[in-house]
Amino acid sequence: MECEAISGRMDAVAARPLADLLECPPATGNLLNGSAQCIDFDGGEIVFRQSGTCRGLYLVVSGLFQRRTERLETRLTLGPARAGDLVELSAALGDGHHTYTLSAQTPGSMLLLPMEALNQAFQSYPPLRMRLLEELAREVSRAYNTCRLNRTLRVRPHGSSATPA
Amino acid sequence: MIPALTPWAGTLYFNLTSGEPMAAFHSHHPPEDCINCEHRHLRMFCNLTPEALRDYDGIGIMMSHARGAKLFSEGDPARNVFVICFGQVKISSTSRDGKTMILKIAGPGDVMGLSAVLANVPHEVTAEAIEPCQVKTVRKQEFVDFLGRHGIASMHAAQSLSGEYLTVFHDAKRLALSGSAAGRLARLLLDWGRASANGKPEIRFTMALTHEEIANMAGTSRETVTRLLNQFRRDQWITIKGSSLTIVKPDQLERLTA
Fold first, then answer.
1. What value of ipTM does the predicted structure carry?
2. pLDDT at B110 over 70
3. B151 and A129 in contact by Cβ < 8 A?
């Protein structure tokens, strides 16, 4: 039941189509198109590292990429990024540092919209920032639900035995 | 028995050894409005340009909440955005069988309810004041319109969402990347200590949570938290004086989190 409810909530916050998210007037569109860089990656290659400085917003064009977070020797896989996915809205719109490490699982390519062009686009067309902000909010909501699923399995009930989990 | 407190009487802290509430102390001086708030330069969201600040001052209402007051509950429709001016608020979520997990303790300048408002979904979490607090409450549409008018405000909102995203990640990491309750508790203590230390060499902080609440944050039981805190103290990794906790050997705690 809990999982079904979470699944329903996940549908409500599903990622919006890219064309809707990045729709903007021709001048702003040209600015973004003109600055976009297409970068190819081999399987296993790191796109960016957790805590590294964010160069911009990434869009997966082809291939399969893996998000993972790490601390010391431990790694946690957070899920794949596929063609059409916008990657790291949080870092691009927020504090400018990557939340996780992204690596290519298969050969693939990504489109990078550099921060500078993105900031210019926000100034010339403010609704773009608002739309991406809303998408980031949906991403946060998806993260809550993923985490809730994880937690449902792991949290111990009140009054359980005192031995370490 | 927890004594009743009137707003602005002060902060209620808990004795970390016994888990019992202690006397209230250190009073706050709530700001009259946003423009004359002497603390806004220190706050993430409210540090706005003069034009945006004037606009921000004109929206929403300032509300005082007593300790224990719920600002919103998980599943409630998201009708408002809340910005903390003073005080601390516990952000938690509960599963259907009543298990509670505290995700973070929000403080001055933190924005609550923003992701639910912008994603147009019910609140994902519950927000409850753990001490008397003052919160600016802004209606959903009013806040969205304000963000649309001021680039600086939407930038700060993005930073706030980014912070919320990190909190959720930290929660997942805390549970998944540390196999033991000791490791999860150690991670919490280090996170709180480092946040309070603000670059100072001494890692010390004041605890506003009960052992039960710490247990809900570390995904373990109250008994385990009490036992582990005593263990850390006996090993001289931490010292506890009343509600004040000092981390003496952070490297030992760090080792537990691996």
1. 0.75
2. yes
3. yes
Burial of B25 (0-12, 13-18, 19+ CB in 10 A): exposed
Span A53-82, average pLDDT: 82
| Chain B residues near residue A161 by CB distance under 8 angstroms | 221
Which architecture characterizes domain A16-135 according to CATH?
Sandwich (2.60)
**Which residue in this structure is represented by tokens 């989990």?**
A165
What are the backbone angles phi and psi of residue A122, rounded to the nearest 5°?
-65, -35
Could you count the other beta carbons within 10 Å of the beta carbon of residue B131? Answer: 23
CATH assignment, B40-176: 2.60.120.10
Contact (CB<8Å) B220/A156: yes
Give the one of A72, A126, A165 whose C-beta lies nearest to B219's C-beta: A165
Does domain B181-257 match CATH 3.50.30.10?
Answer: no
Taking the domains of chain B in order of start, what are their residue ranges? 40-176, 181-257
Question: What are residue A62's DSSP bridge partners?
Answer: A109
pLDDT of residue B4: 33
Q: Which of A132, A147, A160, A161 to mutate to test the interface with B (most CBs of B within 10 A)?
A: A147
Work out the average pLDDT over B231-236.
93
Tell me which of B175, B229, B256 to substitute to probe the interface with A (most A C-beta atoms closer than 10 Å).
B175
User: Can you give the residue ranges of every domain in chain A?
Assistant: 16-135
Cα dihedral across residues A164, B219, A144, A102: positive or negative: negative
**Summary mean pLDDT of chain B:** 81
User: Does the pLDDT of residue B230 top 50, yes or no?
Assistant: yes
Burial class (CB in 10 A: 0-12, 13-18, 19+), B68: middle
With beta carbons under 8 A apart, name residues in chain B contacting A138.
Answer: 118-119
**Which phi and psi (to 5°) does residue B111 adopt?**
-105, 130
**CA A28, CA A131: separation in Å to the nearest integer?**
14
A26 to A16, A23, A33, A84, A114: CA distances (angstroms): 21, 9, 10, 21, 18
